[in-house]
Amino acid sequence: xxxxxxxxxxxxxxxxxxxxxxxxxxxxxxxxxxxxxxxxxxxxxxxxxxxxxxxxxxxxxxxxxxxxxxxxxxxxxxxxxxxxxxxxxxxxxxxxxxxxxxxxxxxxxxxxxxxxxxxxxxxxxxxxxxxxxxxxxxxxxxxxxxxxxxxxxxxxxxxxxxxxxxxxxxxxxxxxxxxxxxxxxxxxxxxxxxxxx
Amino acid sequence: xxxxxxxxxxxxxxxxxxxxxxxxxxxxxxxxxxxxxxxxxxxxxxxxxxxxxxxxxxxxxxxxxxxxxxxxxxxxxxxxxxxxxxxxxxxxxxxxxxxxxxxxxxxxxxxxxxxxxxxxxxxxxxxxxxxxxxxxxxxxxxxxxxxxxxxxxxxxxxxxxxxxxxxxxxxxxxxxxxxxxxxxxxxxxxxxxxxxxxxxxxxxxxxxxxxxxx
Lengths: 197, 214
Prior knowledge:
The complex is a heterodimer. Chain A is built from one helix and 16 strands. Chain A is mainly beta. The longest helix of chain A has 21 residues, at about 1-20. By secondary structure, chain B is mainly beta. In chain B, about 10% of the residues lie in helices and about 45% in strands. Chain B has one helix at about 1-20; strands spanning about 30-35, 45, 50-55, 65-75, 75-85, 90-95, 105, 115-120, 125-130, 140-145, 150, 165-170, 175-185, 190, 195-200, 210-214. In chain B, the strands form four sheets. Chain B has a four-stranded mixed sheet, with no helix packed on it. The N and C termini of chain B lie far apart (about 115 Å). The model of chain B is unreliable at about 15-25 (pLDDT under 50). The interface of A and B includes residues 121, 139, 162 and 163 of A.
């Protein structure tokens, strides 16, 4: 008689323990790194359920770490994806590494990288009689004599741009109008270079 | 009787094979490896006082194989170090593919072959200068679209009379830079002196910004 009580209570204790394990309040982190966050609106989702909006890093690089506020439990399956992205990110470009699995320890190695939407940057040149070298930071473009237009490398939305002259053409001096700004959701094609004499 | 013949024969065979082991074709190890991302001339690797010059690859971007002339025997140690950096680059022992640690020093024979990884990268330096006359808030400088930005702190009241030093992020040797004013400060117009150039072998500190009332 005694042993059957024991058994029953043991079974009950087991059940309690198992419930605790299966609950949604676990002990393990679900975290990683993400790139492509320069604006609010990068929302991650785990198992099509719990969501987390990644805070925007202050240094403008768009690279930051994230950590779901809810902890997961040992042996829980996880599947982290981008649910929705800010307007300057194309969600179809997001690449994932180690974003799915079954938790054994803290999960901190998820890697997500999303690319920014880009816009064209260019404009017109007038009276160019020699070779002109234009730059936008590290992007360098040689504009040949006689050219009337130029195109720089594409620029991420919301990034600044500053088109400057690295080398003037021989015996000429050029000036730039509308060379500085921040790229919005449209191509920039109003940079105007005028050379004299 | 039969077995007593077999035994000496076995002993003889054993002795012969041992002699082969100890003979002239015993295991030798070549201290070799590859250098990644080498672009410029001047790399010198050294092992046990022997220097080895390594030239850049003929195909840009390819890895360069190197091998020291002296061969090691089983149990000899080796330690390959960079004793001369190429121009405009810094090289150091790297982590081989699939490995966790640098493998430039070890004991010959612990692995079947010695394949040391040396990794080079192009030197990079900051671009900066001073900001003079800043009284308004909100000045933002940028180096193109990917070279980073510098946001000036809001000037104190009264504003400092000494120029403010600033630095933009690192730029690789041989890469161009072009500093522009992305956002003018409130009530002022700033201009940039020496705004463009190509990065050399030292920090650029002459991109000076002067701000005056608009």
